[in-house]
Structures are given as C-alpha cells and as structure tokens.
Amino acid sequence: MKVEQIYTGCLAHGAYYIESAGEAVIIDPLRETKPYLEKLNKAGVKLKYILETHFHADFVSGHLDLAKATGATIVYGPMAQPDYDVYSAKDGEELKVGDVTIKVLHTPGHTMESSTFLLRDEAGKDHAIFTGDTLFLGDVGRPDLAIKQGELTKEDLAGYLFDSLRNKIMPLADDVTVYPGHGAGSACGKNLSKETVGRLGDQKQFNYALRANMTREEFVREVTAGLTPPPQYFMKNAMMNKGGYDSFDEVLAKGNHPLSPEEFEEIANAEEALVLDVRDREEFSEAHIPNSIFIGIDGQFAPWVGALIVDIKQPILLVVPEGRSEEVVTRLSRVGYDNVLGYLEGGVKSWKESGRETDAIANINADKLEELVNAGKAGRILDVRKPTEFLAEHLLAADNFPLDYINGEHFSALDRKGNYYLHCGSGYRSLIAASILRARGYGQLVNVRGGWNDIKETGLEKSDYQCPTSMSQATVDKAVEAVL
After folding, report:
1. Bridge partners, residue 129, by sequence
2. Which of 6, 214, 363, 419 has its CB 3.0 to 4.6 Å from that of 15, i.e. a possible disulfide?
3. Where on the phi/psi map is residue 441: left (φ > 0), alpha (ψ -120 to 50), or beta?
4. How many H helices and E strands in the chain?
C-alpha cells in the first residue's frame, strides 16, 4: 500500500493518492489532470475511483476531466446529487482498492454531503482518515458555507458537525493518521495548523473542537465564533463543482496564447478585459500598463484573485513573468477563472517598445515612513490588513482599509486627490490595494515595503497588543461592519 499527499501551498490544499496491487484512488484532485496521469502511468496502475469529500468551495476540483481521461468512477458520499453521473456511496459502505479497503463515513456539518474516507490496510486495520473539510489539524471546517435561507443555519450545521465528530471520527483509534483537506492559509477554517499530516490522538488532545467534555452548546458557540464573511468566489466554485465546467485543456489552450501589444490592446478594449499583472512587486511598481491590477503570482495568488475579481466570468488578459504563462492560467482555473484571453508577449518591455504608456507606483521603506510621519508629511496612512490584524496592533496614525473588503462602498471615505501611504503585513497586499485604487482614479499612492513586519520595529506610536484569537464574534462583526 502506498499513500501520498500532494500538497499545493498557494491553496493550502491536500489531494491524496492511494495505490495497492495495481489499482489506485485519488482524493480531491486539483483542476489540472496531467500530474495525476503521469503518476498513474509511471506506476503502471489503473485509477479505480476518484473520491470527493464534498463540493469544494475554495477550488475547482479536477474530478470530471480525470474521470474522462481514465474511466475511473467519481464517488461522493450520501446527499451529494451533482448534475453529472457519479457513484453515491452509502454511509458505512466499503470500497475495495487492490488489497486495501476504503470505508465511507458520512460526516455532515461543514456541508451536508461531507464525507470522510477511512483507509484500512491489507490486514483490515484502520490506517488513516481523509477528512476533507470536516476535521483539520487544530480546527474543524467552518459551518457557514452551506446554509440555506429558511432551512439551515450555521448553528444547525455546527450541530451536525458535533455529531459527526463524536460519532464517526473520535471513536477511532488514536494511532489513526489524519490527512486533512487543508492546512494553514485556507479560509475554510479559523485556526488551521501549519502541519499537514497528524495523529488522531493528538487532535483529541489538542484540537479545541475535540475536547472530550465539550457540550454541544459549547461546540456550536466556539465553532461559529469569529467567522468572517467567506470569500465571494466560494459559492461560485461550489456550484461549478456541483454542476460541471469546461475542460481544463480547452481553458489552457485559450488562455496560454501570446498576444502582440497591438492585439493585447485591441482585445482589452473590445472585450472590456481586466489586465492582471502577476509579476514581481518591484517590477510592477516600476512600470505597468495603466489601469492594470497587481496580484503577484508568488504570493497567495489564487485566493486573492477569487476574493477580489467579483465576476468569475470576467475576461482577463495577463502580464506574466517570462515562461510562466501556463502556470498562471492553470492557477486561475483552479479557482474557476476560465476566461483568460491571452498574455502579453514580451511583457511590459514590448509594450514600451511599441510606444505605449506605462504607469508606476512609488515604494518607500518603513524608516522613511517614520521620517515622514514625524515631519507631518505622511498624508493618510491606510492599513489594508484584516480587521482582526488591525485590532491586534496597529499604528495609531493609521486607518483600517482592509483589502478583503475593498470592493465595498467605503471608497466614499477617500479623496481622489488625497495622498495615501498603504501598508499590510509585508507589502504584498498593500500593493494590490494600491493598484486597485490607482485603476479607480486615485493618483497619489505610496506603498510601504516590508509592511507591518518592518513598521513595528520603528519608533512610531502603536496601539497596545491584544491577542486576536481572544476576540468575541461581536468584536469581529463590529470590526467588519466598520469598514463595509
């Protein structure tokens, strides 16, 4: 028996490959099928099942393309009912794969169709659980993504999750390995560990949601506390996973297409396409196509695209680092942004050489910001971190302007002629925010390199530190409402 975790850091996502006696299973695959097909071909095994723990909201699964390429059967647990052919397994049903067995455990709570897959080895011993978004290391799945108006509330789902954990997962042996769907960085939970593989016994001991003496009421209260609104693309991805989507090969062929500056500009105007620049932040700051938006490929790229580009069908044109166009189109498709129309061949250099104009955004270091503040010349400072980060500790001179909610109505609080200094934790999010503000007509913008990581080492006056994890739901809600 072979078990392999295939972890994708930018989405904090774990897919899984199980192989036994010439047969294989893949659990929760990403959109692109090539890496899985290469693995299967190299091992010389047949893919028997593609197991889906639930309708994912934070990425588009590759189950449909993978099933078409291999003939494997897509398996969901009870209550899934997608708009394509699958095998709907019953709670407790066992699936044979080579010499091992996979038992389906229906574990509703994160969503109603959520299931956990229990792997038993050749001797029939419980070996591992693949928990999807039911159980993470250090946390459990958020119960507010599958609420239905007039039918289910997040409290209802949290109650189902309590029962699933107590009745299906916690009775398993302590030495069972836990393979979760996500790690730290995912918006599918609140307190996910940086570790991506663990022991169930450790979770019973250290995971707040698995306390042995925890009442249902305590569980519901703690699991639903501190939930900020989910990224806007979550429901759209869930619908794509439930209803189906275009072939990834077609999406890649359309998007990974070089365009001359003339073609690029013509398509941008004709299609009202968004120009998305994914290069290094210093390169973008120095020169970029006017009105383009920066979301760097080397940061939390796909989640920020999903959070900020509201229309998932938005036509997109790319400015990419040389040789990385296929990677960018692929990563966009993972979160459902399939309408990429091509990329600028030769990048900004070819744009300049064609005689077209560029724009720029100034950068300064934290010590320069300190100098400007002390001299009364810093204008207005915008801290674009999350409300919880801001409440934990911030510059007294700064206002919270969270990137997460930049598409809200709080632009009315800004003056297009104002002078703004933006910072986040490291300088990545603040440059995204600056690019959006610039595209909307705000001219005097300065990004602070190093962000709060460097600013906190200066002598600028700061708020007292308060641990954000201790904040009540009411405090978080108030902070969010204040910026919407």
Report:
1. 118, 178
2. 6
3. left
4. 17, 22
Q: What are the angstrom distances between the C-alpha of 428 and each of 187, 242, 296, 309, 453?
A: 18, 33, 8, 17, 12
Three-class SS state of 363 = strand
Q: Find all residues with CB under 8 Å of 333, minimum gap 6, and list them.
A: 31, 32, 60, 248, 251, 252, 255
pLDDT digits (tens, 9 = 90+) for 8-26: 988 999 999 999 999 999 9
Length of the chain measured in residues: 484
Query: What confidence category does residue 195 fall into, taking pLDDT thresholds of 50, 70 and 90?
Result: very high
- Amino acid at the residue 297: I
Q: Fold identical between 2-236 and 362-483?
A: no
Would the pLDDT of 367 be above 70?
yes
CB 294 within 8 A of CB 277: yes
Q: Which fold has domain 246-353?
A: Oxidized Rhodanese; domain 1 (3.40.250)
The rounded distance, in Å, linking the Cα atoms of 322 and 423 is 28
Strands 13-20 and 23-27: antiparallel
- The mean of the pLDDT values for the chain is 93
Class of the 362-483 domain? alpha beta
Report the CATH architecture of 2-236: 4-Layer Sandwich (3.60)
